[in-house]
Amino acid sequence: MRKADFTYNILFFCLVFIIGTAHTKDTVFQKRIQLEENEQWWGGFVVDGPLMPFGDFLYSIELHGDRTGNQSQPLLVSNMGRYVWCEDPVHIEFKDDELIVSSKYSEIIRGKSGSTLREAFQFVSRQYFPASGKLPDSLLFIRPQYNTWIELMYDQNQADILKYANAIIENGFPPGVLMIDDNWQEDYGVWEFKAEKFPDPKAMIHQLHDLGFRVMLWVCPFVSADSREYRELKQKQLLIRKNTDQGLPAIIRWWNGASAVLDLTNPAAEQWFVGTLKELQKKYGVDGFKLDAGDAHFYTGEIKSFKQAHSNTHSELFARIGLHFPLNEYRACWKMGGQPLAQRLRDKSCDWNDLRKLIPGIVAQGLDGYAFTCPDMIGGGQFRSFLNLEKIDQELVVRSAQCHALMPMMQFSVAPWRVLDEKHLNIARSMAKLHAEFGPYIFKLARQSAMTGEPVARHMEYVFPHQGFEKVNDQFMLGDSIIVAPVLKQNAAKRIVRFPAGKWQGEDGKIVNGPANLEIVAPLERLPRFKLKDY
Predict the structure, then answer these.
(1) How far apart are CA 354 and CA 56, in angstroms?
(2) What are the tens digits of pLDDT across the range 316-367?
(3) N or C end: fewer C-beta atoms under 10 angstroms in the chain?
């Protein structure tokens, strides 16, 4: 071969490679799936749990740069045993009896395993996000949780935290995990107690331990730009940068202002953050952390990181911090199904519409692979709802406590003894005690989930396939044998409960022979629940 021909061939193949690479980058991977008759689908965004199942209406959503404030997963599973998975964010669209799933990052995987929702989920769980065999801390399941946010908001301080904890005990509520929320720290990224608010944090935590609590602190990946820690992290290039030649740290807008953010694609940034949190444990006796604000949409725009990554991967890396701490909680997560992380639903308002979102949200978490789930704070996590005592709906707070009571976890924040009269307080207290009573059983289910990946709180369709339960979103299964059917409507003292085949014994001792749809009397003090007899 002549030298000129050789040179030409090299240039030709280089050109082909460049064109091929560019084409691959712009290629949209896509699968179009014709829906079967009566086929229903779950997955994607947990926040859209109240809309699930999909299949009968137009629906379109983009998972890349997730702005929904809750967990998500590049997964869909159907009641006909079919599934869709991708290793990267996808766009999901249901229209004209067709499911269209697209990704600009990687191949879409589709398949079928069995003929039920459970068989499809079990397959994808084993194949794509296998259960780790590990659990979050047991106390998250077996006792109620308490969060200081509603009572103290941005005024977290030692005296009032101890007052809140002592009031829990004095009012007859069982102690459990106590979460100290945002603004205990000197600044974002400056993870040290404020000296003027916490004169002796080590003694405070010791007192909380003596009362029977384990203590979590709120943290986030943000770093205030006028702090010493910012300057140190900037010097070491451990912060997300602007996508410019100067490479200055990017300043990200979030709900508490504008801050730099850790670049967790750099192992040194992870080491710094984990080391800082472990030092809090060593120095003060802190037990764990509520890890907040790791939402994917904070990582969109013109940014640059140590390793190239799309926005959802940054969210995933923040979630992995929790694997170092068995006592953890997340509100936003990406692709962490099967892992020992406690996952809470996003903040809800104190209204009946948001109360009705809890059950579909919890079962959607489970069907996305997040088994260790917690609803939002009892009565809602929006503090403005509780500023005017005269406007607080006591009935809603009680029904919310009932909805939480037999979920994998339950979490108080507003102090029930502050907002409820004696009648309503007694019911809320009984629900906290009911959760503690069921704690060993709930934890048994959680241990099984750690091995199998299956949800603790399950959709009716998951346990009883092809019996007409696919659109039942106001009751759920605790494991395979207990139906939980709280009242979710204002001024209601009865509700319809849908029973599968079998003998179901209510907590009142009465037997229901299924299948049946029965109107159940449920005055304010009753949480209807039914156990499969002889199970």
Answers:
(1) 23
(2) 999 999 999 999 999 999 999 999 999 999 999 999 999 999 999 999 999 9
(3) N
